[in-house]
Structures are given as structure tokens and as C-alpha cells.
Design brief:
mainly alpha; single chain; 378 residues; 3 strands; 17 helices
Length: 378
């Protein structure tokens, strides 16, 4: 059955207005609970066939631990991370929560991560309704999840991820989620911090259409307003949120890998901030150095003259540093080969491609690389 996840008692002791979420409706908007559950499971399966799940067991373990701290019953919670640089998290019936790497890359403390998970787990998923799409598909670049949701006409997913549950339900989730945050021992002001940040970064998100709830600047502003009006006046304290050693270690790979997604989407400012954050914690991270090399290489392709040459040189420095840190990481030599190929340095491009194939002979693009090599030998 559909139901509200977590223990209501943990929330009621914090603030009395949580009657907004008390209990679970037996009827959705025109759909009974069993129908909602069955359709939601079918839509979730369809979504997972079209997107790429971010596979990091250490991260999965960590997210489950945070959820356990919030709701005390991790067996009822399944958190799935999707490789997508846009901002999204949404709850579905059966205790399933989907979250994008893009949103995870924005949180700066475990408290902020817990704030996102708490408000999603606080939703009464029985209130899901079928979203009616209007008009043609947007004529812009869609993220992988957006393309799947709109292309497959996943109405329940769209309602949860794009439209939200409605003003009253979303305010209720804000209140309930912040209550769980406090009951679990987190600083409630961390919720306000993350929502204020999401509300204020809209200008940096070019390249992809942010259609999801957490990508809406006005809706994140509303979340901030709700939290400011709570009893006790939850306020964001000045200064950076404490990241914590375990949080930083567990989140570093997903922040780094999401930066690569933002680079491919042409969102260079966002990618640079993420890579700087990773390398400040772990300057020996060879993969992050490769991504920074890509950052310079792809931007140099858009430039000309001295700027193009300078960008290529910086990319070469990053790739070289990555090769020093981990000579066995094949991707470094693939990217080096592409840079040399761009510079028409045939000998060095050929040597780098050969090194890549020697390290990774079964690479998915091995046949294409061999074709490059054949062309370079002609």
C-alpha cells in the first residue's frame, strides 16, 4: 500500500502543524492507492530502462545510513541515484526515492543532504496524480531523466518530480522534513542553507533545461520562506556548513563524476566549482585531474588564437599530472590522444591511443580507436 514513510510520532513532538500530513489517503486524485502503487512501480521500471544508475556501493551505503537516521526503518527506503546533472529528487510509493547526481553535487554537508532526503520521505505518496502533458516536447536540450519522463509519458513520475504534490502538500513536507531533521540531531538551519543556494544559482545552469521541482528557482524560494516562518525561526547561520570527514569522502566521487556530466553539457562554471571542491580535498585524485583537462580542452576548442593555445596547454598539464598520479588509468591517455589529434600532432596522438588500448584492450570504444590509429598511420 501507499503510505507516509517514517514515524509520525517523531515529527508531531516537534511542531503541531503536521496534521497536514497525518495518515495516508486511501484515494489519490482519481486513483485508488493500489492503482497508484502498481502504476508507480511500472513507471519506475520504465524510467530505469532509459537512464543510467550511478553505481557506487559506498555512496549507496552512506545514503541509506542517513535515511536510517531520519526515519529509523531503512528497510522501507530504497534510494536510487541517477546520473543526471540537473536538480531533482522525488519520492514514489513503496519507499523509493530517486535523486540526481546533480542535486547531490550541490549539498555541502550531511545536514543538507539529510534535509533533501527528509522532505522527500515526508511526502504522502498516495497523493500522487497523473500529470496531463500539454503541448509538444520542449525544443531544447533535455537531461536524460527529463527525456525519459516526457518521452515515455510517465505521468506519476512527472507529477512527483516536476510538478510537485501541490502547495499545501509541499509546505507540509517542508515542515515535516525539518522536524525529522531536528529529531535526528541535525541542525535545522542546514535545510534553509541548501534551499537558499538552489534558489540563487539559476544563472549558472545554461546548457540543459531544468524542468524538475528542485531546479525551479521560485519553488526553492518558497521552501526558504516556509522555513523562515517556522516556530523557532530556523535561520541559516553565517559561514560554511561543516562538511565532515565521512561526508566529504563518500560524496567526493559523485561530485567529481557529476562535474564530467556538466562539462559535456557545456556548464563549465558549475563543473569548475565542483572540480575545485574535489581537488581541494584530494589533489591526488587522477580522475578529477583528467576531468579538469577535459574542461580546458573543450573550452579551448571554442576559442581561437592565444586563448585556444593556452587552453590546450593547461589541458596538457592536467593530463600529464593525472598520468603521474595513476599511470594505469587508461582514460588519461585516451583524452591525451584526442588533444594531440586536435593539435594535429600525429606521432603523439598515435602513441597515446596505443597506450590507451594497451591498458584497456576491451574498452567499449576500442574498435573506433583502432580506426583512428589506422587513419593516423596513412
Amino acid at each position: 500500500m501507499c503510505r507516509w514513510i517514517g514515524s509520525p510520532e517523531r515529527v508531531v513532538v516537534w511542531v503541531g502543524t503536521l496534521s497536514l500530513l497525518a495518515g495516508c489517503a486511501t484515494q489519490g486524485r482519481g486513483l485508488d492507492a493500489q492503482t497508484i502503487r502498481e502504476r508507480a512501480e511500472k513507471e519506475a521500471a520504465g524510467l530505469l530502462e532509459r537512464v543510467r544508475v550511478y553505481d557506487d556501493p559506498r555512496l549507496a551505503e552512506y545514503l541509506t545510513g542517513v535515511a536510517r537516521r531520519l526515519v529509523g526503518d531503512a528497510a522501507r527506503v530504497r534510494i536510487t541515484v541517477i546520473e543526471d546533472p540537473t536538480l531533482a529528487a522525488f519520492a514514489m510509493p513503496g519507499g523509493r526515492v530517486f535523486v540526481h547526481t546533480g542535486l547531490l553535487s550541490r549539498v555541502e554537508s550531511e545536514g543538507q543532504l539529510a534535509a533533501i532526503l527528509a522532505r522527500e520521505l515526508a511526502h504522502d505518496t498516495c497523493r500522487l496524480a497523473e500529470r496531463a502533458f500539454k503541448g509538444p516536447m520542449p525544443r531544447t536540450v533535455l537531461s536524460p531523466t527529463a527525456a525519459a519522463v516526457l518521452g515515455l509519458d510517465l505521468k506519476l513520475v512527472a507529477h512527483a518530480a516536476i510538478d510537485g504534490y501541490g502547495p499545501d502538500e509541499e509546505r507540509g513536507a517542508d515542515v515535516a522534513g525539518t522536524g525529522w531533521l531536528a529529531a535526528a540531531g541535525y541542525d535545522p538551519s542546514e535545510a534553509l542553507k541548501v534551499f537558499e543556494r538552489l534558489a540563487g544559482e539559476d544563472a549558472e545552469r545554461g546548457g540543459l533545461l531544468e524542468i524538475f521541482f528542485y531546479g525551479s528557482r521560485p519553488r526553492m524560494g518558497e521552501r526558504s520562506e516556509v522555513l523562515r516562518e517556522l516556530p523557532g525561526q530556523v535561520r541559516a547561520s553565517r559561514g560554511a556548513a561543516g562538511a565532515g570527514g565521512e561526508f566529504a569522502r563518500r560524496m567526493r566521487p559523485v561530485v567529481r563524476d557529476n562535474a564530467a556530466l556538466d562539462i559535456r553539457a557545456g556548464r563549465f562554471a558549475l563543473a569548475q566549482r565542483q572540480l575545485d571542491r574535489v581537488l581541494a580535498l584530494a589533489p591526488e585524485d587522477a580522475i578529477a585531474q583528467v576531468h579538469y583537462g577535459d574542461w580546458h580542452r573543450l573550452q579551448s576548442q571554442r576559442a581561437s588564437g592565444p586563448v585556444r593555445a593556452e587552453g590546450a596547454l593547461k589541458a596538457l598539464e592536467r593530463y600529464g599530472r593525472a598520468a603521474e598520479l595513476d599511470p594505469s588509468y587508461a582514460e588519461t591517455f585516451r583524452q591525451l590522444a584526442l588533444l594531440y589529434y586536435q593539435q594535429r600532432d600525429v606521432a603523439k596522438a598515435r602513441a597515446a591511443f596505443e597506450r590507451y588500448l594497451w591498458l584497456k584492450p576491451d574498452a567499449p570504444d576500442a574498435q573506433r580507436v583502432r580506426e583512428y590509429l589506422a587513419a593516423l598511420r596513412d
